[in-house]
Amino acid sequence: MGNKQIKILYDGTFIAENISPKSRTGIFIVAYNILKQMLKDDSVEIEFFCRHDLFGQLVKVLEELFPSQKFNIITDIQNPEILVKKNKLNEKKQRYKQEKRYFKKFIKQIQLMIVSLRIKFSKIMCLSSTFDKYDVFFSPMYKIPDCVAKNNNLLKFIILHDLVPLIYPDYFPNYENHWHKFLVESLNSRDYYFANSQYTKQDFLKYCPTIDPDKIVTTLLACDEKFNLQSNEKIKNVINKYSIPTDKKYIFSLCSIDPRKNLVRTVKTFIQFLEKNNIEDMVYVIGGGNWGGFLDIFEKEVENLGKYKDKILYIGYVDDEDLAPLYSGAEWFVYTSQYEGFGLPPLEAMSCGCPVITSNNSSLPEVVGDAGIMIDWNSDEQHIEAYEKYYFNPELRKQNSQKGLERAKMFSWEKCYDKMIRVIKDSLKK
After folding, report:
1. Positions of E strands within 154-239
2. 172 — alpha (psi -120 to 50), left (phi > 0) or beta?
3. H/E element holding 75?
4. Model confidence over 34-59: pLDDT tens digits?
5. What is the Cα–Cα distance from 396 to 136, expressed in whole angstroms?
């Protein structure tokens, strides 16, 4: 390649789908931070791909994330601007319907049919040769789109996050129509893959033998640089913002109600820990979005929840700028998931000097090492013992806080991206 810039077509479909900040999970953090590193790299030139129906959303998200930059976006149809016309026609059709202007509604219906035919024809005309000018197609999550996969002149790279839907299908009743199923079915020996941990790499090689072992590379993730030990003033402000009692100590957890995250067990054993030791000065603070039916699930699963409701504080979605102070102010952080491809929250907590309790399974030992208490995810007894170790031993909390700060320095997005771009450049040379 010499000094010539590498032309990378970045799949922005997943980024476009997360137009609301409240819907952004760990995978979005990965997609965003790798993209941010790419945009800093003078050796690459970035353009974007997305499904035609997400064109407008991708424009909005990119304007939010990178307000001072302009980007070229291509879609799986040749003329995405006709989608704007279709949306405007739809709006007018609905307005005329409400106003009972039936003739104009009929005219708009005819125009919509014509535009829809133009979209269909445009999609057909979007041949694989459209992508000949690029060297690399990079997907932070999804399978390679069919219109791109047909092109044999560019290399394709996908970040692999985990195999949870395949290994635990009971948690995904609609797996037959899940994006993950289509990804797994598309894996092959031609394309290249980045695994977010050594454990994820081994899992994919085990369950997806079509992958060439020489074309899957482990690139450990990182957390944002904003995660660091915060001042007492910032901690106090955030505690007040989320109505956390100032006369209590708190432990913190950040996750979804997904059964794999093991949240019910952590709450149940926290209550048992309080009862066993007659503890009155602690509360459990839980943050996270998408919690439909959260209280109903806990009331069914957790004995004595009613008696201890004031000890379990669900604060919902946490603004990005508030996460570091919440980690920093917690006595410890709990994240005993059944399975993680990487597990960003424990790393975020360690970066803020918060002692952690995590599971001893999947990728979590790669992240936490000896810097936290690691236990069996399905052991109530070990959860209670871990809580007791931290509560009654401030020296252990201090020790693991320091260990966590040191270990967190091992991870950075610069290291992650540097390894990725080296693999991309080496692959292009071949």
Report:
1. 155-160, 192-195, 216-218
2. beta
3. strand 73-75
4. 999 999 999 999 999 998 788 889 99
5. 48
Q: Taking the model in full, what pTM does it have? A: 0.85
Longest CA span, the chain: 78
C-beta neighbour count of 40 within 10 angstroms: 10
Tens digit of pLDDT for each residue in 279-335? 999 999 999 865 555 666 666 777 766 678 889 998 988 998 999 999 999 999 999
**Closest-CA residue to 222 (of 200, 197, 193):** 197
Q: For Cα atoms 142, 148, 152, give the angle at the middle one, nearest 5 degrees.
A: 125
Domains of the chain: 6-76+126-222+413-429 (3.40.50.2000), 81-124 (no CATH), 232-408 (3.40.50.2000)
Q: How far is residue 247 CA from its own chain's centroid?
A: 34
For 159-168, what is each residue's pLDDT tens digit? 999 999 999 8
Parallel, antiparallel or unpaired: strands 333-335 and 356-359: parallel
